[in-house]
Every structure is written in structure tokens, then in C-alpha cells.
Amino acid sequence: MTMPANSTHGLLPGVPVGVLKIHRGELIAVAIIGIILGVIALVWPGATLLTVAVIFGIYLIASGIFRITAAFVADGLTTSLRWLTGIMGLLVIVAGVICLANPFSSLVVLAFVIGIGWIAEGVIDVMSAVRGAITPRWFGFVSGIVSILAGIATFVLPAFAIVTFVIFGGVLLIVVSVTTLLTLPRKRRDAGVAA
Fold first, then answer.
1. Would you give the end-to-end CA distance of the chain in angstroms?
2. Alpha-carbon gap, residue 53 to 160, rounded angstroms
3. Which of 60, 115, 167, 186 has the fewest CB atoms lying closer than 10 Å?
């Protein structure tokens, strides 16, 4: 006796076998793409950074066009809000064009934003440790000081910081993708045989 086509898989009751096969295939494809992108990031970090900067610039231009369009067609906007939305859209487009004209400068700005975030997070951790909100307190101090130092290092060496992010991200992408492949749900050999 064979199981009907819409029968369920033993690992996930109620989920058709066909859906599980598609999901497994998607996981394999995403993991392989992740490994390839991780290797590219490690082998060509400069090209990876350039690609990120160009995509960021294109995103800004598309976002600016959307804002300008919204200024003309959105219902319920006052005249002043329409002008503000349109001007913001124009400024975002200009920022996108600047990113495309000088992509590596936009990455330096991104490094500064990350540095500010780390410094702010470090100050919060240190203040939480001082107030006793983090236990053990020494962990808050260590975490805060490391975060502040990382933020300062990002300001001092922004290009190095961005390349380090790409390399670290590439390694993580490869590790996560390989882990995904190693932990895929196993195919049941008896999926087509009677239970």
C-alpha cells in the first residue's frame, strides 16, 4: 500500500510531503548561494564592498523616486507635507547619485554610523553596570569598554573596519550555510511506502 500524494511526512505531521521536498530544496539552494557569496566576499572584499555601495546608491535613488511620487499622488497630505516629502525625496536621490559617483566614500559614512552605534551601545552598557542593572557588573563594564573601543577604532580606521566587516560577514555566511546543509531534515526512505 502506498501513501497518497497529499499524505504527511513523519517529521512534521500535517505538512504534505511535496511541501517538505520544496522546502528542503529551497534550504539547499539558499545554503549553496550563501557559501558562494561568502567565498566571493573573502576572495574579493574590494569588489564586494563596491557592490554593496552601488546597491545602496541604487536603493537610495529608488527610495527618493518613491517619495517624490508619493508627494504627488498620496491622499490626505497637506500642501506643506507634500513639499516636505518631495524635497526629502529629491535629497535622497542626490545622496544616491553621490553614492554611485563615489561608492567608497559612502562606505566610510556607513562605517561612521556603525561606530556611533557601538559607542552609544558601550556607554549604555557601562551606565547599566554602574547602576547595577547588569549582573555580573563586570560583564557590563567589559562589554561597554570593548564596544566603545570598537567604535573609536571604526572612526580612526573606517576603511579597515569596513573590510573587516566584509571578511567577518563572509566567514559567518559560509559557516551558517554549511551548518544549514548539515542540519537539513533527512529524507525518509519510506515516504512512498505504507506506514
1. 9
2. 16
3. 186
Do the Cβ atoms of 155 and 118 come closer than 8 Å?
Answer: no
CA distances from 124 to 117, 130, 134, 138, 148 (A): 11, 10, 11, 14, 10
Residue 98 has pLDDT above 80, yes or no: yes
- The position carrying cell 550555510 is 177
Domain count, the chain: 1
164 assigned to some structural domain: yes
CA distance readout (Å), 24 to 5, 27, 86, 146, 189? 17, 5, 45, 40, 15
Q: Quick: pLDDT tens for 106-120.
A: 788 778 888 888 898
Residue 41 lies in a domain: yes
Rounded to whole angstroms, the Cα distance separating 10 from 33 reads: 29
pLDDT at position 80 is 86
For the cut 50, the answer to whether the pLDDT of residue 69 exceeds it is yes
Q: Is residue 194 part of a domain?
A: no
**Cβ neighbours for 134, distance < 8 A, ≥ 6 positions apart:** 125, 128, 140, 143
- Per-residue pLDDT tens for 156-187? 988 888 888 888 888 888 998 888 888 776 66
83: domain range?
Answer: 29-182
Give the cell for residue 63.
527610495
